[in-house]
Amino acid sequence: MSDHLILLHGLWMRGIALVMLRRRFESEGFEVDVFDYLSVAAPLERTLERLRKQLRETEGTVHVVGHSLGGLVALRACRGQDDLPPGRIVCMGSPLNGSASAQRLAEAGGAWMLGHSKELLEHGLQRWDGKREVGVIAGSKPVGLGAALGSLEGDHDGSVAVSETRLPGIRDHCVVTASHSGLIFSAEAAAQAVRFLRQGRFRHQSETVDAESVS
């Protein structure tokens, strides 16, 4: 029986943006559902309850992969919920300890663009202490809104700094050459996600990711 996987998109996106990523996971044998939500207009607690409901109604192992805000939503939904089915979480380009770009945008009068996700994006989480193993994939291609706002320091993907994707309590972390939006189209990022979902760790250093296997 195949493992189930729920995909979550990021801010200002809808589920249709994850078509290629979904196909990559399906080609690896996962049964994939895309969780579509209103990242700005919908109250966060309503989104969290919808995701928890979907997790509870899915039998067997259920993994979650979230891009950007989607990774934060996944962690918030699964934290402290002992009745959810087993599975791992992969966050792709998620500002787990807070987004400087979101803070800068809000300070510049763009708080309305963040809507109900503002607080979560600005402050993130302090640490991960949930039951699920969490792996985080960061991007290092500096093309995006954050670069234009001048809010990022160190390596970044154009919207989120690599340092913002690190969080105490996560199981593993890796960096791929992709922009923030490019993470959902990256064969390397998908291959790393598949590796973590199956083995609980990414490939590192001299190990080679077989990107062609999920292309």
CATH architecture: 3-Layer(aba) Sandwich
The number of distinct structural domains comes to 1
Largest sheet: 6 strands, parallel
Number of helices: 7
Write the H/E string, N to C: EHEHEHEHHEHEH
* CATH fold-type name: Rossmann fold
Query: What amount of the residues lies in strands?
Result: 5-15%
Broad shape = globular
Helix content: 25-40%
By CATH reckoning, the class would read Alpha Beta
Q: Could you give me the name of the CATH homologous superfamily? A: Alpha/Beta hydrolase fold, catalytic domain
C-alpha end-to-end distance: 23 Å
The helix-and-strand class reads: alpha/beta
Biggest sheet, strands in spatial order?
A: 2-1-3-4-5-6
Mean pLDDT: 92
Radius of gyration: 16 Å
Number of strands: 6
* Low-pLDDT runs: none
What does this 3D model show about the protein?
This protein has 215 residues and is of the alpha/beta class. Helix content is 31%, strand content 14%. The protein has helices at 19-27, 44-56, 69-78, 100-110, 118-123, 145-149, 187-199; strands spanning 4-8, 31-35, 62-67, 89-92, 134-139, 172-176. A 6-stranded parallel β-sheet has the order 2-1-3-4-5-6, with helices on both faces. Helix 2 crosses helix 3 (69-78).
